[in-house]
Design a protein that fits this description.
The protein has 334 residues and is mainly alpha-helical. It contains twelve helices and six strands. It folds into two domains: 2-105; 128-332, no CATH class. The two termini are 36 Å apart.
């Protein structure tokens, strides 16, 4: 029941309300102590001018009490938020409660969480068969990004691709430049990322699969993580949990990964069948191949450039590509 009640922390409207509360708390922490101190100093000054020692002593005592009250008022919000943070250590509720905690703690991180929540809500509200406009053409929703990969054969061969280099690991203008990291080095960055309440750590179990897919298909690992975080709410969506599908891949016949076929996975919220994978690593392989085959290879069906923005024009998250780039950049630079 507690976990269900905390689903409210994934609602963009509730997160926006918490963002406002965060701003109000920040203002109160600054203004109230200042007002108390100014009032106390003013009172003491008045009694000093009156040259009455007893009144000055009493005013000083009042000032001390007010200073103490100001300090307490300044600390209460931080202590309360820290206490809330203790609850995020419990695995059964942290995926939900953590978003509320972060919105109260950090306005900037709350902005990213709101963007992700809004995107997921938008995707879940789309009716099957609804049309969207892409480059002036009407396309069936999800048809482009979830295209049937008929004929795809898994290969162990790695691409000879360019590495970002120069101490950088992600170039939003060319996602075909890979990070060049090892799985252990990626894990270190995921551990080092303190933004988003440590949600980057959720990808640690998939570090090996991510790096292998990056090398095999020439798709930057941080770009993939940025897309998955937006599409799946940091792996917390029902589609991700139920189907190991972090990217909204719809089900089509003859979809294969590692020589296996995807399964049909029903999603009640959208009333549609999505592709199910027996493991997240299988989804990562399928998705990376999809991006390579259809989006970043010159002359490919949906090629409009190698930047994250160019891919998003057709892929389906054009309005939220800034969030993808932000998440990818923050983790890459951790």
């Amino acid at each position: 029941m507690l976990t269900l009640s905390l689903e409210i922390c994934k609602m963009s409207s509730f997160l926006r309300a918490l963002r406002i509360i965060n701003y109000l708390i920040t203002i109160a922490k600054i203004l109230i102590p200042i007002i108390i101190i100014i009032k106390g100093i003013t009172d003491v000054g008045k009694h000093v001018i009156s040259s009455k020692p007893e009144e000055v002593r009493n005013a000083a005592i009042v000032l001390g009490k007010r200073l103490l009250a100001g300090i307490i008022i300044f600390l209460i919000p931080s202590l309360t938020i820290s206490l809330m943070g203790m609850f995020t250590n419990y695995e059964d509720i942290q995926n939900n409660f953590n978003d509320c905690y972060l919105c109260l703690k950090s306005g900037s991180e709350c902005e990213s969480l709101i963007s992700v929540a809004e995107y997921i809500e938008q995707q879940e509200s789309i009716d099957v068969g609804e049309d969207i406009t892409v480059y002036g053409k009407s396309e069936e929703i999800h048809k482009i990004s979830d295209e049937d990969m008929t004929g795809y054969e898994y290969s162990e061969e790695y691409k000879d691709t360019e590495i970002v280099g120069a101490g950088k690991y992600f170039d939003p203008n060319d996602v075909s430049k890979i990070s060049g990291l090892t799985a252990d080095e990626l894990i270190q960055k995921l551990n080092n990322c303190t933004k988003y309440g440590g949600k980057a750590k959720r990808y640690i179990p998939y570090a090996k699969s991510l790096i292998e897919a990056e090398k095999r298909h020439g798709v930057n690992v941080f770009y993939m993580i940025g897309v998955y975080s937006l599409e799946s709410g940091w792996t917390g969506s029902s589609l991700a949990q139920k189907c190991n599908n972090l990217g909204g891949i719809k089900y089509y016949s003859n979809q294969t990964y590692f020589g296996k076929k995807t399964t049909k996975c029903w999603q009640q919220s959208t009333g549609a069948w999505f592709a199910g994978f027996d493991e997240v690593g299988g989804f990562i392989e399928y998705h990376a191949n999809l991006i390579e085959k259809n989006y970043i290879t010159p002359g490919a069906k949906y090629y409009h450039g190698k930047s994250a923005e160019a891919i998003s024009r057709v892929y389906g998250h054009h309005k939220s590509v800034g969030t993808v780039i932000e998440i990818a950049s923050n983790i890459a630079n951790s």
